[in-house]
Design a protein that fits this description.
Radius of gyration: 18 Å
Largest sheet: none
Structural class: mainly alpha
Distance between the termini: 26 Å
Number of helices: 13
Number of strands: 0
Length: 199
């Protein structure tokens, strides 16, 4: 990843200034599997801290997060752990899909990015953002851009001196200049966003 960071900084002085200010981004990585997908679903449209708290409540309420355990519970029982009804339904449906073999998470590590993304998008409760975050964080794919990630768009506005947060389409066009290391560029922008937020 450090080689990719170096190449990105050489090609884009704005990214270079972020790395000079904050250092290289951490390699945020998560173990591939259902528990990580559940946690990413919980992160949809909420802060990381809120999602972490929800995941901890879920674990405390049901025990280890597994397809067998979750599919055996009703969505209402999952929601009783302090999770919204919609996300509880997504989590239950996802567990059913995994247990039935409709979503084979182990095979994703061998699939090309488009195929892995398509397989994830066929599962209940998984949209483009969730699929992209799983590819970046769990499968460590180097060239994925989650174009609707609000933190990335806010950081892009800041480092590029834009008058407002860019639209997903504008952000995607800017990110194209960072291929084949768009995931690494995203990590740099997240690093910048978190550093600014924690000042």
């Amino acid at each position: 990843m450090l080689r990719a960071v170096t190449q990105l900084c050489r090609g884009d002085p704005d990214l270079g200034r972020v790395v000079a200010r904050h250092g290289p981004p951490p390699l945020w990585a998560r173990r591939p599997g259902l528990a990580t997908l559940v946690r990413i679903i919980l992160e949809q449209q909420v802060s990381l801290a809120s999602a972490r708290a929800a995941f901890m409540r879920l674990q405390a309420g049901i025990g280890p997060v597994s397809a067998a355990r979750l599919s055996g519970l009703s969505p209402n029982r999952i929601a009783a752990c302090g999770i919204t009804r919609q996300k509880a339904a997504f989590i239950h449906g996802l567990a059913v899909d995994v247990l039935a073999g409709d979503l084979q998470l182990r095979s994703l590590s061998e699939a090309e990015d488009p195929a892995a993304r398509s397989a994830l998008l066929r599962a209940r409760g998984i949209g483009p953002w969730t699929a992209d975050i799983y590819l970046i964080m769990a499968l460590l794919r180097p060239d994925v851009w989650p174009d609707r990630d609000l933190a990335l768009l806010k950081s892009m506005k800041s480092i590029k001196g834009l008058p407002s947060d860019p639209s997903p389409d504008v952000g995607r066009r800017i990110a194209e200049t960072w291929a084949p290391w768009r995931s690494v560029a995203a990590r740099i922008l997240w690093h910048d966003y978190l550093a600014r937020k924690n000042r």
